[in-house]
Input
Amino acid sequence: MSVHQNTPLKKITTHRLLEMKQRGEKIAMITAYDYSMARLIDATGIDIILVGDSASNVMAGNDTTLPMSLEHMIYHASSVVKAVKRALVVVDMPFGTYQGNSRLALESAIRIMKEAGAHAVKMEGGAEIKESVLRILTAGIPVMGHLGLMPQSIYKFGTYSVRAQEEVEAQKLLDDALLLQECGCFGIVLEKIPAEFAKTVSESLLIPTVGIGAGMHTDGQVLVVHDLLGINNEFSPRFLRRYADLHSVITDAVQNYVTDVKNKDFPNEKECY
Ligand code: KIV
Output
């Protein structure tokens, strides 16, 4: 039975997320990129659905998130928004639509809100994108930050390994987190940083943190839906818990279908008009 059948539909807002942090209730966030999956996920009682630019990897087969365009994100986000009744839908601003140009950033964010019907946008970075963040917030668009491992900067980092292990980088991350809070961001994703440091950051902030590979002390957790469902069985980072083995389920189902077609077993008499 879905959560919707048990509880009255109360939409998740940025204000409710703040209240969740205040009372110590963890925030559950997951990615989705299409209508059918978003519909299933929203009915579970998830708090935030992220239309992540990880769509570049899991939907489009790219090695990085950099190729995603605003049009790609709007296409995915508008499909997700149509399916969602309860969760807050946050949409990643893709690479090249906000860095170094706050006017372009505002235009990009407005398109995501208007054309996709998103509820908020997410942006990677701290002090470097302050102007863009402020300009978007001033227009009344909620912004979620993203610090730690920032996949749009993969060519700067050179690796997908754990960030903020050195004092200087950790201090900058903490400063950036406080800055994003001061600007008015409603939450911050912390990706792949040591658990104890994520605890320090989370405890230093009034706004919620949502971690991926950032340990158990963040105010919430986020995973990419394809990873959580085990659709791709080749991606096995330490932080990932697989809740299903859809790789096997889908492979077996399609193999059975192929066999039935080849054996002239599908369709049978009952499956014909
Ligand atoms: O694009 C994405 O899926 C993300 C999550 C990994 C947080 O940014």
